[in-house]
Amino acid sequence: MPEKEGSCVGLNEPRLVVRKFLARPQPEGVGAVVRRSIGRFELRYFDPFLVLDEFSVTAPAGFPDHPHRGFETVTYMLQGAVKHEDFEGHKGTIGTGDLQWMTAGRGIVHSEMPAAQGTQKGLQLWINLSSKYKMIEPRYQEVSSKDIAEATRDGIKVRVIAGEALGTKSAIYTRTPTMYLDFTLEPGAYLQQPIPGSWNAFVYVLDGEGIFGRSKSSLVNAHHLLLLGPGDGLEAWNKSSKLLRFILVGGEPLCEPLVQFGPFVMNTQEEIDRTVDDFENYTNGFEKARHWRSESGRTLGF
Ligand code: FJE
Ligand code: FE
């Protein structure tokens, strides 16, 4: 029998931090604020990731009616609640710790608005879809906080949004192979997390101060994005006296041409032109946008 699970884990080639960005607040949507790391000018694309926003929204601000095509949006709530409504009549509210994994595919038009008093905070990640899946039927996977798989070991807690960690697997289906882990490390904790060698991966720090990649590297605190270089996993340390919370996200790069026009992400300019036509003429997946308005009654356009 193997020994205690995990005892054989060891990384041969820990990934090092190759780039570091501080995500500063910027206006987005209607009166909302995002700290954008991936998707800003200096980091337009980190294949397959298009956008990572740490958002902060207080009513009446929000993200009223707007379309998406060609990718997935993953919304993970950190505080408060967001209500979404789409043009098919799909409605729901996600609160602290809840997850919405939306595959926009050929087209979604929806609104994402605050659903509670005070400030709603969370993360929204946009994951590109490969050319063969860009026009698939839209799909939602919604997971409430209590159903997100968690594991704890040696001062490490992980919430497994997608993929696997500490022997615990998520039930989320990722069309583009993706891992998404929410780690909390107690003071003194040390983490080794395998990551498939061919994947791109990053860390985004939410709280506290951590050391990533090499034990002697400098402390990294909240709102910083770290791009990881090649290797087979991540090593992280909490050498501080407070909790350290960060997400680790990895994905298999698509290695395809990319043409983006706001919330439409395709492979060629021609496909983008067709998408704008489809949106304006309510065709090829946007049929139901013709008569639909959310309760907010506003639009973000695109
Ligand atoms: C969008 C502008 C936007 N980050 N984080 C243009 F703001 C958006 C958009 C969001 C968004 C929504 C939430 Cl709930 C959280 C976000 C951008 O909705 F889609 C376009 N096209
Ligand atoms: Fe959206």
Protein model, in words:
The protein is mainly beta. The protein has one domain (24-251): Jelly Rolls. It is built from 1 helix and 26 strands. It has one helix at 269-281, and strands at 17-22, 25-28, 32-36, 49-58, 63-68, 71-79, 81-86, 91-95, 99-103, 108-114, 119-128, 139-143, 149-153, 156-162, 164-165, 168-169, 178-185, 190-194, 200-207, 209-212, 220-221, 224-228, 233-237, 244-251, 259-261, 264-266. Strands 1-22-19-24-17-14-13 form a 7-stranded antiparallel beta sheet, with no helix packed on it. The protein has a 7-stranded antiparallel beta sheet with strand order 2-3-4-11-6-9-12, with no helix packed on it. Strand 13 and strand 14 form a beta hairpin. The longest helix has 13 residues, at 269-281. The relative contact order is 0.20. Residues 28-29, 34, 53, 55, 63, 66, 75, 82, 112, 124, 262-263, 300, 302 line the site of ligand FJE.
Give the helix/strand layout.
Elements: E1 17-22, E2 25-28, E3 32-36, E4 49-58, E5 63-68, E6 71-79, E7 81-86, E8 91-95, E9 99-103, E10 108-114, E11 119-128, E12 139-143, E13 149-153, E14 156-162, E15 164-165, E16 168-169, E17 178-185, E18 190-194, E19 200-207, E20 209-212, E21 220-221, E22 224-228, E23 233-237, E24 244-251, E25 259-261, E26 264-266, H1 269-281
Bound molecules: ligand FJE and fe (iii) ion.
Count the DSSP helices. 1
The overall average pLDDT, rounded, is 96
Sheet-strand content, in percent, reads over 45%
Ligand catalogue? ligand FJE, fe (iii) ion
CATH second-level architecture:
Sandwich
Quote the CATH topology: Jelly Rolls
Which regions have little confidence, pLDDT < 50, spanning 5+ residues?
1-7
Number of domains: 1
Strand order of the largest sheet: 1-22-19-24-17-14-13
Distance N to C terminus: 57 Å
Radius of gyration: 19 Å
Largest sheet: 7 strands, antiparallel
In CATH, the homologous superfamily goes by the name Jelly Rolls
Order of helices and strands: EEEEEEEEEEEEEEEEEEEEEEEEEEH
CATH level 1 name: Mainly Beta
Q: In which range does the helix fraction lie? A: under 10%
Secondary structural class:
mainly beta
- By DSSP, the count of extended strands is 26
